[in-house]
Design a protein that fits this description.
By secondary structure, the protein is of the alpha+beta class. The chain contains 16 helices and 29 strands. One of its GO terms (cellular component) is nucleus.
């Protein structure tokens, strides 16, 4: 050891480092315990900040370096330090932070040194890194732990690791730092890992902590990708651990160790040169063999669990996607009664998620491949404008997600919430904490706000969706929109008339349904609208929302609302009309759930059949399989004719809508936040229309008389031609 330095060693059984002096050891807390996030804010009117805006910008040319620009191998800083590819630089701190805490600027992992041969200007292009404490509650605040932050445009093709690089002016560089990029779990390779020399004159804990903050090793294990929309805001993103091909080669952990997710009991890894010799060492020192994954030899159905199941919208979508629903849990007696009526093969549990697992059930019985969690969203909704009696319970329910994930350990988990959780300033802290809980349970995640009318829902229903995959399992992509406006190349937007067609086909039999009794509805006097060219006027809520029948004469019945939520027409609800409406408004629409779980099931099946790897970057599974030259059957095993060879797949089928280049022929949908987006259904071009009693009425006629005539015509099986 060099003279003038003293050793700094750490106890791995504790999260905090221990400084060992000659005769005593003091427990030091080097992790931030500040009660509120230290978010970086830059004042727009500050001269230095304006300079930084000019000198720090997203790279728009990426790797396309052309004359008069050229790439260089090294660059010398004024202090004598040399910059090369892979060097990590600390940038100047342009934030406005309190002076009573340790602060720093961001960091840059250099990938390219670019010089303009005409102006001799130099730019440093690379990845922006940021301390975890500057990202709010998304991650635990650990000293010298960094996050790779990538901002990419929503519709930008290519890898985020190319599109997300930024350009930095050398004048913004403060100095060179030692930084490790790794996929190994915390605290491996951190400043705690080696014996850290420090200046001999430092005595107090504060001095040691400050020295480590400014000079100790930095470690990056996580990437946060934000997808920016046209308005510059991020309504989608990913938070995940770095993959082995994204880290320093000498600090990579083989993907084989991540299969099935990290084990809480493992605290040490023997990383020998030969991957076959790698073992996990438990706390008691016992060497645990790594179990090889059993690859399936025949098609199988994935199992599904539904937490906060309500009446069962998510479970219905999972069934339609080909999964086996095993159980549902909800605290509402009426909702769980409706659930049990529709999902006879699933175990219904009525109980509080805080008491999970439910009484009488073992965790082994609750193990499933895919778990859905939809905590009550009323509190987080933009429509929540006054306090409610269940606000506290609804607020706390979201914090059961992490503990339940740790207990059930599904391969993939999904969440559906109101978009206000992610977009409203007063709720963003809770959204970050939710992502933190999911990450600490051992999952990587991606999230996105979708408009469900782009998937066949006849209403503008914007919801936050989250897909989380256990580390060692590929992260499934979000499904592509299937419906769009004119010129999108997608299926037409589903109209009110389209959604009500199953009810129209029943004729008089529809009135036998206790949840479709329009004659008992209170008469209204609203402006009628054409159901063939309209979506439902508002989002379906627990009270039905501000929606009314297209005739303008009454509200929609629960059965009609159920069809607008894409429940099958024979789906059973429980309780009085108001209770049924509540169950419908709370539901995750089955058509959206089906699209989501088809994507999840196809990804799992492709992985289980070794068609894709755990660390593949998948944003479009069909395109990925086509790039790998994987040949898929035209139909799954359960749809093939008896004479055809049986497919080995339950979910994977060939996508014939794709061209030979792998691009979809159906096109893409516009951003849901673009006001110019055309999402209303278009009127069918009929030369001669035969109108039924359910079509819009002329405003000059007496509404009550028209309604009476219409109901009589329905009862007689007749139709009315409107002039």
């Amino acid at each position: 050891m060099a003279p003038g330095h003293r050793p700094y060693v750490f106890d791995y059984d504790e999260d905090d480092p221990v400084y060992v002096s000659d005769d005593e050891g003091d427990l030091l807390d080097y992790d931030s315990n500040t009660p509120s996030p230290e978010l970086i804010t830059i004042e727009d009117d500050d001269e230095d900040a304006a300079t930084m805006d000019r000198q720090t910008q997203r790279s728009t040319s990426h790797l396309n370096i052309q004359f008069p620009e050229t790439g260089e191998d090294t660059l010398s800083l004024p202090g004598g330090a040399k910059i090369t590819t892979g060097t990590t630089l600390e940038l100047k701190d342009r934030s406005r932070q309190k002076g009573d805490a340790l602060h720093s600027g961001d960091f840059l992992r250099v990938q390219h040194i670019i010089r303009n041969l005409e102006t001799d200007e130099v730019r440093l292009r690379g990845f922006r890194l940021r301390r975890t404490k500057y990202l709010g509650q998304m991650l635990d605040w650990k000293l010298n732990e960094l996050v790779l932050v990538l901002h990419v445009d929503e519709n930008e093709s290519g890898s985020p690791f190319v599109n997300g690089m930024v350009d930095i002016c050398p004048t913004e560089v403060l100095g060179v730092r030692d930084c490790v990029m790794t996929n190994k779990p915390y605290p491996s390779l951190s400043f705690r890992d080696p014996i850290v020399p420090r200046p001999n004159l430092m005595r107090s804990n504060e001095e040691v902590r400050e020295w480590l903050f400014h000079h100790g090793r930095l470690v990056c294990r996580v990437v946060n990708i934000l997808f920016l929309y046209r308005n510059g805001k991020a309504y989608g993103g990913e938070v995940r651990h770095l993959r082995s091909n994204e880290v320093d080669a000498e600090h990579a952990m083989p993907p084989s160790l991540l299969q099935g997710g990290a084990s809480d009991s493992s605290i040490e890894i023997d990383d020998d040169e030969d991957e076959r010799d790698i073992v996990i060492v438990s706390k008691c020192g016992k060497r645990l063999p790594i179990k090889a994954r059993a690859w399936p030899t025949k098609s199988m159905r994935y199992t599904f669990g539904d937490c906060f199941c309500g009446a069962g919208g998510a479970s219905q979508g999972a069934i339609q996607a080909g999964m086996t629903v095993c159980w549902g849990l909800d605290f509402d007696d009426a909702a769980i009664a409706a659930y049990s009526q529709n999902h006879l093969g699933a175990l219904p549990f009525c109980g509080n998620a805080h008491d999970f697992p439910p009484k009488g059930a073992t965790l082994e019985e609750l193990r499933v491949d895919v778990l859905h969690l939809s905590p009550p969203c009323c509190y987080w909704s933009p429509a929540h404008t006054h306090n409610g009696r269940n606000d506290q319970a609804n607020y706390e329910a979201i914090y059961t997600v992490g503990p339940i994930l740790k207990k059930v350990q599904p391969r993939v988990a999904t969440l559906e919430q109101t978009f206000g959780l992610a977009t409203h300033e007063q709720h963003k802290k809770n959204f970050l904490l939710l992502m933190n809980d999911i990450g600490k349970a051992g999952y990587d995640l991606r999230y996105k706000i979708v408009n469900m009318c782009e998937f066949g829902l006849p209403q503008q229903r914007k919801r936050l969706l989250i897909i989380a995959a256990k580390r060692g399992t590929p992260l499934p992509p979000f499904p592509k929109p299937t419906h769009g406006g004119p010129g999108s190349g997608l299926k037409p937007i589903v109209s009110v008339a389209d959604a009500l067609e199953p009810l129209e086909r029943l004729g008089n039999r529809a009135y036998r349904d206790e949840f479709h009794q329009p004659n008992h509805s209170k008469l209204l006097n609203k402006t009628p609208y054409d159901p063939r060219t309209s979506l439902v006027k508002g989002c379906i809520t627990t009270s039905g929302g501000e929606n009314y029948h297209y005739s303008g004469l009454r509200k929609y019945t629960p059965r009609e609302l159920g069809l607008f939520q894409t429940f099958p027409i024979n789906y059973q609800f429980f309780g009085p009309q108001s209770e049924a409406t509540k169950q419908i408004g709370n539901a995750f629409p089955p058509v959206m759930a089906e699209a989501l779980y088809r994507s999840v099931a196809k990804t799992l099946e492709a992985f289980d059949h070794r068609l894709i790897n755990a660390e593949d970057e998948i944003h479009d599974l069909d395109a990925t399989l086509q790039e790998k030259e994987v040949s898929l059957p035209r139909s799954s095993s359960n749809l093939q004719s008896s004479g055809a060879p049986r497919s080995p797949y339950q979910y994977l089928v060939r996508d014939d809508s794709r061209s030979s280049s792998g691009a979809s022929k159906t096109g893409t949908s516009s951003s849901i936040w673009d006001r110019r987006t055309e999402v209303e259904p278009t009127r069918p071009d009929f030369k001669r229309e035969r109108a039924s009693a359910s079509l819009p009425f002329r405003a000059t006629r007496d509404r009550r008389r028209v309604q009476a005539d219409a109901e009589l015509a329905h009862a007689n099986g007749e139709s009315i031609v409107l002039d």
